[in-house]
Amino acid sequence: MEKVGKRFIKKVAIVTASTQGIGFSIAERLGFEGASVVICSRKQKNVDEAVEKLKVKGIEVLGVVCHVSNAQQRKNLIDQTVKKYGKIDVVISNAAANPTVDGILETTESVLDKLWEINVKASILLLKEAAPHLTTGSSVVFVSSIAAYQPQATMAMYGVTKTALLGLTKALAVEMAPNTRVNCVAPGFVPTHFAEFITSNDSVKKAIEEKTLLNRLGTTEDMAAATAFLASDDASYITAETLVVAGGIPSRL
Ligand code: NAP
């Protein structure tokens, strides 16, 4: 990581769901590039461990417990950030749940509510809370999924919530312009805890690798690099866009 740029010096970045996986790598990348990063997730122990891992790498970091669908914890996340760093330059909305493999018509109402609440509504409510503190030239990135373009049978409703983020990106980019850019990344398949169905099954892993043009799964660092680009001033003329980071798995023209 010594070779990364320094695009986030003096910037303050919040990354949700960032104590492991893609969120952690995004926080690490922004931190390596000079940002003060605010990380969070549901469990204090995970927050503490992730803070330590980032600190030993020389990254300026604040860790806060925040279940993204808890209003009080969302408010606290923003309050703590502003108290410590005085402003917000970057928000990466990365949290998601995928609690069912049922078809959409078989999914219970409470699970439908949970999917909407965590994957879409919480992102909106967090931005409402963050908006008064966003600097001129600030940047928001949503983490969607390749599944947004073609929801798969085993995660259909999850895919639909990720499709909603593509629309949310467009709508909020209009609403938040010109002060704040709003973009989105759509990861392909990355072997994380969330994607246990890949890590736990060699034939699934091989089938997904073969779907890519680059013959491999994505890494959390691949997702972090694309997210950091969109969040940075290198993307200062890009807003309302989704960047697919999926090794060439078909998405759209
Ligand atoms: P992961 O490795 O399982 O990490 C999930 C992180 O989120 C953990 O730090 C977890 O910590 C935290 N978390 C979970 N629920 C939370 C909540 N309600 N509020 C706050 N934090 C929460 O997952 P990942 O694969 O990196 O997924 C990150 C994002 O990438 C998701 O939006 C997912 O949809 C998207 N994505 C992933 C893939 C993939 O193949 N992995 C593909 C496309 C899109 P705690 O347990 O402490 O809360």
UniProtKB/TrEMBL annotation:
Residues forming coiled coils: none
InterPro entries: NAD(P)-bd_dom_sf, Sc_DH/Rdtase_CS, SDR_fam
NCBIfam families referenced in this protein's UniProt entry, alphabetically: PRK07231.1
Recorded family membership: Belongs to the short-chain dehydrogenases/reductases (SDR) family.
PANTHER family tied to this protein: DEHYDROGENASE/REDUCTASE (SDR FAMILY) MEMBER 4, DEHYDROGENASE_REDUCTASE 4
Gene3D superfamilies: NAD(P)-binding Rossmann-like Domain
Pfam family, one: adh_short_C2
Organism from which the protein derives: Beta vulgaris subsp. vulgaris (Beet)
UniProt cross-references to SUPFAM superfamilies, sorted A to Z: NAD(P)-binding Rossmann-fold domains
Transmembrane segments: none
Protein name stated in the entry: Tropinone reductase-like 3
